[in-house]
Amino acid sequence: MASISEVIKKYNLSPLPGEGGFFRFITEFGNAGCIYYLITKSTFSSMHKLTDDELWFFLEGGTSEQLIIDSNGKEEIRVLNQDNRDSLVNGGSFQGTRLLDGEYALFSTVMSPKYSDDMYSSPDEEFLLSHPKAKEFLN
After folding, report:
1. Considering the entire predicted model, what is its pTM?
2. pLDDT in tens, 19-43
3. Burial category of 101 from C-beta neighbours within 10 Å (exposed 0-12, middle 13-18, buried 19 and up)
4. What domain range is 95 assigned to?
């Protein structure tokens, strides 16, 4: 398996402010957009909410877990790895993704419409008080 620095260089990834991890826009098609997204032990996807659906694809690396809390407050843990390669996170759900083993995990994500900063929000204190597990997914 490649080192973290080799993966960052190979895919020309940059740090993702706010959420954490590393990313690069791959392409836009129609109204959709696609990125590469890398997490490590210390740079994971911090708990956040997007207004629209996001489809995740596991590409390589270690096993990761995704905490998803839907708009009704239902919590779900999903595992992403070579045996479980995709996860659809519905818009309006909070999500966070962290590495369980290995040095990194590389994903591709797709959104339609393509991502823009106004789609992103962080959890407030009231949300964190009602969902203590979400605090584990904060940078």
Report:
1. 0.95
2. 999 999 999 999 999 999 999 999 9
3. exposed
4. 4-137
